[in-house]
Structures are given as structure tokens and as C-alpha cells.
Write a structure and sequence with these properties.
By secondary structure, this protein is mostly helical. The chain has one domain. The protein contains 14 helices and four strands. The protein has a two-stranded antiparallel sheet. A two-stranded antiparallel sheet has the order 3-4. A hairpin with a 3-residue loop joins strand 3 and strand 4. The protein is globular, with a radius of gyration of 20 Å. The relative contact order is 0.15.
């Protein structure tokens, strides 16, 4: 029986990237919301909602990068030179955020500076990830399997707009998470913020979708050729339904539904990305089969992943289960 190893590896990497964006997205979003909450009690509660899990969320980024290097070295070697600068900016942002997260709780005189570092690091990491996504979606110049562009090819209006879109996505995810984890006046303020945020996010999604279709004929053909649109139409329809659902659930003061529906929007957007680029791993021409490492290497690495992946899934699920429930001011701090 023939086993399509590149497809298996593409599924593993796709899953890892999605879980990373889903989990790290809302705690990055808390950093984006931080400037709007000046009271120390509010900020302490916001941080304590993610203190037990935030560093574990980044495990998925490490897993995705390692799997990309092991299974698709050509894609790894092609994509990184195209996005070196935003990638470095993202890593610097994550470092600033992580250091600030740990130190601000112990600092007193310099705490405002660490708050600033936390906000700046979260914003830099989120925006850079959006720029990388936009660069990937708009396509990367490849000649003979190698990157043939310039180091500033990522600096386009489309990629920068995608950076703005991911800021809005993470901020909306952060709102949903905080509505679920907080109560009282803090929760009411976050509810008020979520309505304009979700409408802004919907506008961003619409603009990116239209821009992509108009600028990328290959993507337009994928979505609209023959009967494809009938198959793919549920994606935009469900996005609209989720936006309406968030507005209604917020008005009715549901606590978990806004977060779940925002996660659904993220999943639908990720599905739209995969529909647009598959089977390319680096658009417009590098497919998962061309970019693959030798089958022997993929088989060897797959054994390790099949052992590690269930362990990561288990401790991730366990950490969220153990620290479930509301977070209140005065609760034990985990950072």
C-alpha cells in the first residue's frame, strides 16, 4: 500500500500551525488589549487568565518549525530568506513579551516599563506573523527551487494589511477569552470592546479575501472555476453566521459562545487559506511533493512525531482543564 508521506506531513504541520495560532493568539491578544485597561487590578486579572498556559502554547510553534525543517527542507530554505526580517521581528517580540510577563510581577518601580514591553512585544509578534502570512499568500519568487526575490519583498501593502488583520484577529480572540475567564465590570468593558472589534475584523477579512482574488488569478480560479464555488461557498457563509452569532451572544451575555465562535472564524479563515494555496507549500509553484525530504528521512522523523504529538496534546489539554474557571483579583498568581 502506498503511503503519501508528504500529505501526512502537510497535515501534521497544518495542525500544529493552526493550534499555535488558536492558542497563542488569545494570549497575544491580551497584550494588544492591555493599553485599554489601566487599573492594576484589571491588568493583573488579565495576565493571570493566561499565566498557567501561555508558555506551553508556544510549544506548537517550535513543533511546526522543526517539522517543516525535517519534512520540507526546500520549503524551509525558500521561505526563511523571503521573510527573515519579519521573522526576526516576531522572535524579538516574543522575547520581549515573555521576559516582561515574568518580570513585571516582581517589579514595582519599573513595572510601567515592563507593561510597555509586554504591549510592544505582543503587537510586534502579532503584526509580524500577519506580514509573514501575507507574504506567503501573495507568492514568493522561486527559481530552480531557490528563493529568487529580494529581502524586502515582504514589504507590500497587501502583507502589511494582513499584519493589521492578524492584530484584529488576536485582539478579538483575546476579548472572547477574557469574557469567558472574567466577571463584573472588567467583563462588561470587554464585552463593549468586542462589538466594534468583530465588525472591524469582518471588514478586514472581506478586504483580504477580495484583494487576494483580484490580485491572484490562480487563487481566483481555485475558488470560482467550474463548480468550485458551490463547494467552497459554505466558508464565507459560515464566517458571516459566526459574526452575527458573536453579536447576538454578546447581547445576551453568553460567556463561552463568543470565544468559541471567534475560534470558528479563525478555523474558517485558515480553511480558506489552505483552499487558496494547496497543494503548494510555498506559493505560487513549490508543491509539498517537490519540497519534500527523502522518504527515509520523513519516515524516521515521523516515528518521533507520532510519539511526541500525543504527549503535547495531552499536557496541553490537561493544563487547560486544571486551570479552568473564572479568575478573580487576589487569586494565586502563577507567574
Amino acid at each position: 500500500m502506498h503511503i503519501d508521506l508528504p500529505m501526512i506531513w502537510a497535515g501534521i504541520i497544518g495542525l500544529g500551525v493552526f493550534i499555535y495560532v488558536l492558542l497563542d493568539g488569545f494570549d497575544l491578544g491580551i497584550g494588544l488589549l492591555f493599553p485599554f485597561f489601566n487599573a492594576e487590578g484589571d491588568r493583573e486579572i488579565m495576565l493571570n487568565t493566561v499565566a498557567p498556559v501561555w508558555d506551553g502554547n508556544e510549544t506548537w510553534m517550535v513543533l511546526g518549525g522543526a517539522c517543516l525543517f525535517a519534512a520540507f527542507p526546500v520549503a524551509y530554505g525558500t521561505l526563511l530568506p523571503a521573510v527573515y526580517l519579519p521573522l526576526i521581528a516576531m522572535l524579538c517580540g516574543l522575547i520581549f513579551r515573555g521576559v516582561a510577563f515574568e518580570i513585571r510581577a516582581k517589579a514595582h518601580r519599573t513595572q510601567p516599563l515592563w507593561d510597555l514591553a509586554f504591549m510592544a512585544g505582543s503587537s510586534m509578534a502579532s503584526f509580524s506573523q500577519g506580514v509573514i502570512l501575507g507574504t506567503l499568500l501573495q507568492g514568493i519568487a522561486i527559481v530552480d527551487g531557490r528563493f529568487a526575490g529580494n529581502p524586502y519583498g515582504w514589504l507590500t501593502p497587501f502583507s502589511l494589511f494582513c499584519g493589521l488583520g492578524l492584530l484584529a484577529t488576536y485582539a478579538t480572540l483575546g476579548c472572547g477569552w477574557l469574557i469567558m475567564k472574567t466577571e463584573g465590570e472588567l467583563q462588561r468593558r470587554i464585552r463593549r470592546m468586542e462589538k466594534p472589534l468583530i465588525l472591524f475584523l469582518f471588514g478586514i477579512i472581506s478586504m483580504v479575501s477580495l484583494w487576494t482574488v483580484l490580485e491572484q488569478p490562480i487563487v481566483a480560479a481555485r475558488w470560482f472555476a467550474k463548480h468550485n464555488f458551490l463547494y467552497f461557498a459554505p466558508v464565507p457563509v459560515l464566517v458571516v453566521a459566526c459574526v452575527v452569532g458573536i453579536l447576538i451572544s454578546n447581547a445576551r451575555e453568553h460567556e463561552k459562545l463568543p470565544f468559541l465562535l471567534t475560534q470558528a472564524i479563525l478555523f474558517l479563515g485558515y480553511s480558506g487559506l489552505l483552499i487558496s494555496i494547496f497543494p503548494n507549500i510555498v506559493p505560487p509553484s513549490l508543491t509539498i511533493w517537490v519540497a519534500s525530504s527523502p522518504p527515509s528521512s520523513q519516515k524516521f522523523a515521523l516515528v518521533g512525531v507520532l510519539i511526541i504529538l500525543p504527549i503535547i496534546l495531552t499536557y496541553t489539554a490537561l493544563s487547560y482543564w486544571v486551570f479552568r474557571g473564572k479568575v478573580r483579583l487576589g487569586d494565586e498568581s502563577y507567574h
